[in-house]
Amino acid sequence: MIYKKKLIEVALPLEAINIASAREKSIRHGHPSTLHLWWARRPLAAARAVIFAQMVDDPSAHPDIFPTEKKQEKERQRLFRIIEELVKWENTTNETVLQQAREEIWQSWRYKTHLNTDMCSQSLVPHKCCTIIQFK
Fold first, then answer.
1. Are 72 and 15 in contact (CB under 8 A)?
2. Cα separation, 37 vs 104, whole angstroms
3. How far apart are CA 41 and CA 101, in angstroms?
4. Most buried of 34, 82, 103, 107 (most Cβ within 10 A)?
5. Which is more confident, 105 or 118?
6. What pLDDT score does 112 carry?
7. For 110, which DSSP code?
8. How many whole angstroms separate alpha carbon 61 and alpha carbon 111?
9. 123 and 38 in contact (C-beta within 8 Å)?
10. Who wins on pLDDT, 25 or 118?
């Protein structure tokens, strides 16, 4: 089986993630985690970005769809825009943003299961991960 790189292995929009994480730490209402401040808070924005990037293929993993570096970079920037929207605090319940992220995750996994003969075990993994990050 050919190894396909995930987005997190190639690049991430770190500046957008850092800004959203810093902003999220300063929000003092609207989430149970803000009731009690503890020393090792983990911003959910960073978690959403990392989980998404771990589940979505990097465009370089699909040379049949993105044959040139230019097309791969264009697709990578599109995925970065999804991450930039996904990490914003105000989008944690935005169904449009969440649905766009879900579609990208499923697209990566559909491509993988289409190429893999073990359909059952491959399709259960994204379902569990989507449940964990509150995707429906």
1. no
2. 34
3. 25
4. 82
5. 105
6. 62
7. H
8. 11
9. no
10. 25
Residue type, 82: I
CA nearest 108: which of 2, 1, 5?
A: 5
Q: What is the mean pLDDT of residues 22-49?
A: 69
- As a three-state string, the secondary structure of 7-29 is HHHHCCCHHHHHHHHHHHHHCCC
Question: What are φ and ψ of residue 57, in 5° steps?
Answer: -70, 145
Residue 28 one-letter amino acid: R
The residue-averaged pLDDT of 63-68 equals 94
Q: What is the dihedral of CA 43, 45, 51, 57, to 10 degrees?
A: -150
- Residue 42: its H or E element: none
**Token pair in block for residue 17:** 């993630």
116: three-class secondary structure by DSSP: coil
* Per-residue pLDDT tens digits for 4-27: 889 999 988 988 888 888 887 766
Dihedral sign (CA 114, 118, 120, 125)? negative
Q: At what angle do helices 95-115 and 69-86 cross, to 10 degrees?
A: 140
The DSSP code for 39 is T
The number of residues in the chain equals 136
- 126's enclosing H/E stretch is helix 119-132
